[in-house]
Design brief:
The protein has 139 residues and is an alpha+beta fold. It contains seven helices and four strands. 40% of the residues lie in helices and 19% in strands. A four-stranded antiparallel beta sheet has the order 2-3-1-4. The longest helix is centred in the last third of the chain and has 11 residues. The termini are close together. The mean pLDDT is 96.
């Protein structure tokens, strides 16, 4: 079973969309392998977004991601990485297809409701940042 990391970001969390987003993933047949509510700090954000350090948008990204609680998830299923990215929709909700999570719940290109791993390599790296082996069930 393929695994991916999903983060439900502070904007979607604060507006009460956790249940809607989780239901969407489960309705698609994905299995929740791990989930936790947490607050990112600057160190965790720097680890997760290491490839973005030094880019013009990095400081605002960290400020946003540390601004409130998030929910971190590991989802499992067949072709879960690509399918979750399709369900999430384009980064900018203005360009996202109707019915996608970002079209429904994102505020903007930077406050875009969810993050999902973009490759098997990224998923493996990102999952290890947020979850220990002991926190993963059924995977």
């Amino acid at each position: 079973m393929e695994k991916t990391l999903v983060l439900i970001k502070p904007d979607a969390f604060s507006k009460g969309h956790l249940g809607d987003i989780l239901k969407r993933y489960e309705d698609e047949g994905f299995k929740v392998i791990a989930a936790k509510v947490m607050q990112m700090d600057e160190r965790l954000a720097a680890t997760h977004y290491a490839e973005h350090i030094g880019r013009p948008y990095y400081e605002k990204l960290v400020e946003f991601m540390t601004s409130g609680p998030i929910m971190a998830l590991i989802l499992g299923g067949k072709n879960v990485i690509n399918r979750v990215r399709e369900i999430n929709g384009a980064t900018n909700p203005a360009n996202a297809e109707e019915g996608t999570i970002r079209k429904l719940y994102a505020e903007s290109g930077s406050k875009n409701a969810v993050h999902a791993s973009d490759s098997p390599e990224s998923a493996k790296r990102e999952i290890a940042i947020f979850f220990s082996e002991l926190e993963q069930f059924g995977g």
